[in-house]
Amino acid sequence: MKILSIETSCDETAVAISEIEKEKIKILANIVSSQIKLHAKWGGVVPNLAAREHVKNSIPILDRSFKLAKIRPKDIDLIAVTQGPGLIPALLVGTSLAKTLSFVWKKPLLGIHHIEGHIYANFISESQKSLVSIHGDNRSSTQGGKVKNQIQTSIKFPVLCLVVSGGHTQLILMKKHLQYEIIGQTQDDAAGEAFDKVARILDLSYPGGPVISEQAEKYLKKTNQQLMVSLPRPMINSKDFNFSFSGLKTAVLYETKKNHTKLKDKKYIQALSFEFQQAVIDVLIKKTVSAAKKYKPKTIMLAGGVSANRELRKQLGEAIKNDLSNTKYCIPNTKYSLDNAAMIGAAAFYRFQKEKIKKNFNKNWRTLQANANLKME
Ligand code: KG4
Ligand code: ZN
Q1: Which residues sit with their C-beta closer than 6 Å to ligand 1?
Q2: Which of 29, 161, 164, 352 is deepest in the core (most CB within 10 A)?
Q3: Cα separations (Å) of 355 from 85, 140, 359, 371?
């Protein structure tokens, strides 16, 4: 079946067209137009500006997707769209477009939870070499052509998924497809949000994750350095699987107030970035490993924008190898770590298979509503 998917929950306008049959997925088009440059000067995403950009970009991107995929609207079997959570003005653009297309083209329509999409990014695995991919400096990317990808059959349930994005930090247990039990989550800021806020304190650009990890890597490359800062690892020893990152951000703020004269010192910023990133990684790994020892998953998965972090990917992999040698480790291709529409299409495929028998999705254009606080079911 061919799925058209649309994602506009935050600051990326994304459209994908996928062809999925049994165990095989072909991504016929996957376009992400990032608004990072626009929002960077405000230090974060401005919802109404984001919506205006989505309105401007979504139809040209839709048009380009069909050209790349070399198919016509009549070939589409299902339309999928991010229903929530996210910024309501931004979500409304994607859902309105999807509802209109569903009504005009008479195609079934499915609303997908954004985090479900991030999780299902793991099910798209592909041969990097055969990709036709162009990455612009504003993370606009386009890929097309006949690329055959396998849905990862090596993912065995139960799965323990560490979701780390700009809005979520959760440990989710999945006993089977589309079944989620949240066993732990942040009590305040999400991990990505902490990266963004700390970057702002350090006068680095938005979004914070990539710049902080870049600074941390610079620190790592220099050997024989005495670490000049030390930050707390909040809740690392608590018996539950919850997280807290707000205190860590405040600790960075106090540290910089104490040493404000050093803020122009590159080495200090690099050391502080390294220590902050490591504090986040230490807590994430400790909780994930403890949860895995209790719930004994067959697979541990990483999902969400922070899963693009190279050190987190590496160190979680090492911890699993050392402490949980029988557990498989699965990470999304970095292209699918950050917001994109291909992940929404992958999740929609599974949801459609499960629910099409009992539900008729042809009239969803009438009822589907964007929901900023949508819960995972
Ligand atoms: O999943 P995502 O693209 O959007 C949401 O659903 O929130 O995640 C965005 C978050 C931002 O907070 C960004 O700073 C963070 O992911 N991020 C990273 C990295 N790349 C993006 N955090 C740490 N290291 C990175 N390399
Ligand atoms: Zn996201």
Answers
A1: 10, 165-167, 192-193, 195-196, 207-210, 213, 304-306, 308-309, 338-339
A2: 164
A3: 21, 33, 6, 20
Residues flanking ion ligand 2, Cβ below 5 Å: 165, 339
Q: Tell me, what's the pLDDT at 128? A: 28
H/E run at residue 195: helix 191-201
Note the pLDDT of residue 262. 83
Rounded distance from Cα 227 to ligand 2 centre (Å):
33
Token output for 52: 């205006």
Q: Contact 243/189 with Cβ under 8 angstroms? A: no
Q: Residue 247 in contact with residue 194, Cβ under 8 Å?
A: no
**H helix or E strand, kind and range, residue 347:** helix 342-355
Are the C-beta atoms of 6 and 94 separated by less than 8 Å? yes
Nearest Cα to Cα of residue 181 among 189, 169, 191, 173: 173
pLDDT in tens, 228-283: 899 999 999 999 999 999 999 999 999 999 988 888 889 999 999 999 999 999 99
- pLDDT, the chain, mean: 91
- Cα separation, 149 vs 142, in Å, equals 16
Q: Which of 306, 307, 373 to mutate to test the pocket of ligand 1 (most atoms within 8 A of CB)?
A: 306
Instruction: Name which of 128, 164, 193, 151 is nearest 300 in CA terms.
Output: 164
Count the residues in the chain: 377
